[in-house]
Amino acid sequence: MITFIGGIALLLVGYFLYGSYIEKNFQIEPDRKTPAEVLRDGFDFVPMNKATNSLIELLNIAGTGPIFGPIMGALYGPVAYIWIVVGCIFAGAVHDYMIGMISLRNNGAHLPELAERYLGKSVKHVVNIFAMLLLMLVSTVFVVTPASLIADLTPGWLSVPVAIILIFIYYLISTILPIDKAMGKVYPWFGAALILSTVGIGAMMIFTQGGNLPNLTAATLQSFHPNGTPIFPALFFTISCGAISGFHATQAPMVSRTITDEREGRFTFYGMMIAEGVIAMIWAAASMALFDGQTLADMIAEGTPSVVVNAVSYSLLGSVIGTVAILGVIVLPISSGLSGFRSLRGIVADYLHIKQDNLRKILMVTIPLFIISYILTQVNFDILWRYFNWANQVTAVISLMVSTRYLYLKGRNYLVTLIPGSFMLYAVMVYILSEPIGFRMGLTTITYILGAVLSAIVLAVFLYTGKQQRDKLSPDAKLINDQLPIEVLAQM
């Protein structure tokens, strides 16, 4: 239990200490007008208060990731705690803060537009493909997972296919509403359900299972996965939303369009990622305390980790309160799926130059996306999760490189994003080389070496082009809203 309590304490300390440093390094300007004020349109650009923005950000980024991921990550044993704590403080929260604030400084721009501005025009197409692929996969996952939870909760009368259709209907209605109506009115209730269920699970686990909570020691600093799966790189893809997730880079710009003061950024972006880390710690610990590795693996193999969610909730809280806790879990993927489709619509519309200024144009983009997603719901969950994980972490690498270039061009400490970005770059290289969804090379010495060589090449090109870009900028080459001149980037 010491490791569990200590991990949560470190997450909180990380928010106050490292979060403050990241904010100082970014150099906020409290008096600067924000996109919510300057570009207010009553649909996406709508000023909202700090509490609402924070809840929207938390529910947007959370989904089932910080629950399903840690449940599966618990198969590796207490070493999962390290990745959640270290990854969250030094990678995930930094990633979320930087993209949220850079988007805020660039009129609420989505990741592909930021990639074009800071990495070069040709990169935009690659990022668009990855962002659209990721959002389609994650939105589909966040249809399937709540549908399975709902079906488990209502056996005999509400099947998974019916639940999927009902969720799509809710998404369609909410996608076409203004953000303050679709999210601002509903999410405080969703947030209350999430907080109560999380606190309930955490408290009961400490009081009833404290003695069963495994601690991180020299003896437990190894992989306990029953299938013998090595820690690297699998753990860093299994637990993504609880440590670092590229999906968050598609959500932060949505909230950057509703913030009215740059001082809110640390709590809204960095702080909500820390909150997600706490959720991840609770579910990883509960899974380890209640089940041995093989039992946990067998339960997950039955379908999705929703089986484990039900077992944990009922075991710790009883049937009535446990059902309430499951409802709190269900709102996570539903809220993230909604925001995922909303972001996907925006990115596709921007890419195809379809202005979203009336219902016909909104539906023209939205309906085809829902049809594709519905087809994908028929694919095995495990396959979807694997492709989602890889696309997710590739997007995280791109986001960290955008952040690194931003800090580099501003003459600030860019190592805070370059170091985690380089680590994740190596992880995604090894993953795609070794996994069945990639080149099927297996985890051999050659795979690790080739992954290192490819990563070094990508980093060398990235650093070289960054120097070229900086050399072409004059000392006063900054626009009033912090953007770099487009004509300079067009020459890259």
UniProtKB/TrEMBL annotation:
The keyword Lipoprotein does not apply. The keyword Transmembrane applies. InterPro entries: CstA, CstA_N. It is a multi-pass membrane protein. Residues 5-165 form the CstA N-terminal domain. GO terms for cellular component: plasma membrane. GO terms for biological process: cellular response to starvation. It holds the Pfam family CstA. It is found in: Cell membrane. It comes from the Bacteria. Keywords: Cell membrane, Membrane, Transmembrane, Transmembrane helix. Belongs to the peptide transporter carbon starvation (CstA) (TC 2.A.114) family. This is Carbon starvation protein CstA. It comes from Aerococcus urinaehominis. The lineage of its organism: Bacteria, Bacillati, Bacillota, Bacilli, Lactobacillales.
